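Ticket opened by: R.M.
Priority: normal
Category: complex prediction / small molecule

The reporter submitted a protein together with zinc ion and asked that the result be attached to this ticket for the collaborator who will pick it up next week. Submitted input follows.
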Amino acid sequence: MRIIIILRKDKLLPILVFGTVLGGLLLLLSILYRVVPARSRLGQTTILIDPGHGGIDGGTQDRAGNLEKDINLSIAHKIRTQLVQCGVNAVMTREDDSELAPYQPGRGGRHRRDLAARIEQARRTKALFLVSIHCDWSTAAHRRGMVAFYYYRNPFGKKLALSIQEELNKIQPQPQKAAPGQYYLLEQPGINGVIVEVGFLSNPEEAALLQQADYQEKIALAIAQGILRALPAAAGRPTTTPSSP
Ligand SMILES: [Zn+2]
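Result attached by the on-call engineer:
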């Protein structure tokens, strides 16, 4: 027996809308069911994202005059968004174009005071990791690539750098190695940090890429994934992955 249901056109639309909303709700519930237990643990973990330079300190720049500080800030915002979406308490040392220590006439050491303010934030927020974002520059214009640096005496920083590097290597043409580096920021007791150089502004091709929002998003996604993978078991293993833009 054939059953033919004939719907009038004016009744079809509400049914379609209702079906779509119901489907969406069910999908949302299924996602929440998977994510909530991980979130409750991850929410207690603070990650401090540090966009290098800012304000009166522009950092390095490309040939067109685009400043490192702006690229660092843009990528840092995107990393934070990814981490927050995964339930991590991600905070930033600066959220806008400002330095952390102002220039004071007659008083030197502004750069060191600026770095000290970032370290102080890592301590105050009890950040598990400090992830500092920078752009590189070289007199050799062909040099390019993203590298995560760590302090060789800090095993947590090294583990984080290796994890981030592995993710970065998935999105860059030439794989690079995470490397030990001499950075005041990373050598402080109690700081588990990395400095991620996200590319060379002296390389015209890489500098152009770093201006693109979707390329910045790719970098942010890789760094966020690297951070999540490096979280120790105590902070709760994430069951979520950052979402693609
Ligand atoms: Zn820098």
